[in-house]
Give the backbone structure.
Amino acid sequence: ALLPLRAWAAPSPMQPVPLCTARRPVVVVKLPRTASTALGHLLNGTGAWCSVVNEVTNPAGARHNFTLTTPAACHEATREAARVLDGCQGHPSASHLPGAFTLNLLKFHMPLGCLEPFAQAVRARRPVVFVLSRANVVHQAVSALRARAALKATGRVDCAYLARPPPDCNSTGHQSMRLRVGAVIQEAQAAEHNTRLMQRHARRLTAPGEAVHPVSYEAVVRDPAGTVAAMLARSGCSGDLAAAVQAQLHGSAPLAPVASKAR
């Protein structure tokens, strides 16, 4: 089902002429195996934001043993998130463009002492907050188990987690592996629990009186143009967005160098 998305959502050195200008930054809170990377690339391809950064906490986590439990790691993650949401401020030709990012709030098991300063910095920038989840947690469980098997078999993150893994990844046979029913059930139950936890924590990122907006993996796969158009509309864009996104996904929109909007 993700094959069309893999063609449309791959990162590219060229970026379409902006379909519109988002008036507000965006945060997509998500769990693994929900097509968040593909969605991030789709949003970035609209040109509506200064940039859309996938996994905004990854740089800080990588520098601190993949944990956000220390004050230094928390400070770095918070500073990076604020920088991304502030967008192109200071750039002479694109200072009006806000930024956006995807984020797994549970990835580093953030303690409340770390999450609150992070959430406060995000709330101050008044982003539109979306929660990306997967309705079919059994499929999500199978996808997660296969990804872990690929990582174990190859030792390569690109084989496990990229939407378009290199061809030599398939030689390990992890895609045809047989899964134990008990393991799938346990993983699906964990995914269901983590989805509820993520939804609760996502509310901490919203400004007072604002709602969290749901987005499903199934909608991204079934109707990527409509999903992106709805997210653009929530962010302050107007017009026939679905048709414009559809045209861009199929390559009929003109292209402009991404450097024209770089920070």
